[in-house]
Amino acid sequence: MIKAFFIKFERLLTHIWYGNSLIFLFFLPISWIYGFTVKLRRILYQFNFLSSYKASVPVIVVGNISIGGTGKTPLVIEIANKLAESGFSPGIICHGFGSKIGNFPIEVSKTNAPAEVGDESIVIARKVNCPIVVHPNRALAARTLEKKSVDVIIVDDGLQHYGLKRDIEIIVIDGDRGLGNKKLLPAGPLRESQQRLKEVDYIFVQSKNFSETIIEFEQTNNIINFYLDGSLAYKINNHESKNLHDFKGQHVHAIAGIGNPERFFNFLAGFGIKVTPHFFYDHVPLESIDLEFNDNLNILMTEKDAVKCHFFTGKNIWYIPVHLKFQNSTNLNWLKQIEDILKEKLA
């Protein structure tokens, strides 16, 4: 019952924030208070009324100004792997959403359970070869990583965590959804105002329709367009793989407990797959009963959801890993620019 309530509540908020609903007007007074609080908090950090930790190595923060999935985690994986290929020794900080972390940071391994370190950190651990530390306190996590001989720290979802100073700020935006009604929480999806777009070093926009979405953003410098792509499905627990084109014309159940489930369902439909969508809220703790549909149809899900279904048996469950692809029209020098900044900071 509780899980069903949160699913319906999240879909209602999505309708209010990204639809044409006027219900947001009722929440505007709270949004004004929230906006004032956010500005005041940042000023307190800027003028050192609140302490902020300066790590001994450069810090790259990857975040967003809106609630919901935008593609931050795949970008963190891409940056970490590319920097490692260039001779850097990165370390990654994750919040650990969906887990119960105690007072001390936890170093993530591929064998951790989502309840211990969160789903996203396990996905990252399977795709990078560098230390990953989980804790909501980014400064405390950074101190732990500094003991691991890293020379650059990448923070997954840390834009609003000003308790940790940063050298490079990256905002990731869902280019298909945009910024919704552009209102601050709770009237809209924004954690901070659009002004932050003018202040960060890079804006990564996830969309295949880049020319249509770039118009929405006033700042046009250092905007990089990417999209998530994948072509193979893997069966949980037995490593069997199958091309997504092989599901064409088939009816399947699609599971998505991510920030923007519609993106995953549309992705599958693009392969000609007949999707019965099942919406879940982000970081949902999936249980076997959630996948009981009283039929023998295949079940397709995201990789983030799959890490929570490792011990499920007796079902045709497949997950689809995705990776970043960059549009040819975008600025492809971003990585070299970041590497040059890091080398200067480390000199």
Automatic annotation (TrEMBL):
Q: What is one cellular component GO term in this UniProt entry?
A: plasma membrane
Q: Which NCBIfam families match?
A: lpxK (TIGR00682)
Q: Which PANTHER family match?
A: TETRAACYLDISACCHARIDE 4'-KINASE, TETRAACYLDISACCHARIDE 4'-KINASE, MITOCHONDRIAL-RELATED
Q: Which UniProt keywords apply?
A: ATP-binding, Kinase, Lipid A biosynthesis, Lipid biosynthesis, Lipid metabolism, Membrane, Nucleotide-binding, Transferase, Transmembrane, Transmembrane helix
Q: Annotated pathway, please?
A: Glycolipid biosynthesis; lipid IV(A) biosynthesis; lipid IV(A) from (3R)-3-hydroxytetradecanoyl-[acyl-carrier-protein] and UDP-N-acetyl-alpha-D-glucosamine: step 6/6
Q: Does the keyword ATP-binding apply?
A: yes
Pfam families hit by this protein = LpxK
**EC number in record:** 2.7.1.130
Broad enzyme group: transferase
GO MF terms here are:
ATP binding; lipid-A 4'-kinase activity
Q: What is the recorded name of this protein? A: tetraacyldisaccharide 4'-kinase
Q: Where are the transmembrane segments?
A: 12-34
Q: What is the lineage of its organism?
A: unclassified sequences, metagenomes, ecological metagenomes
Keyword Transmembrane attributed? yes
Q: State the organism of origin.
A: marine metagenome
The biological processes this protein is annotated with in GO are: lipid A biosynthetic process; lipopolysaccharide core region biosynthetic process
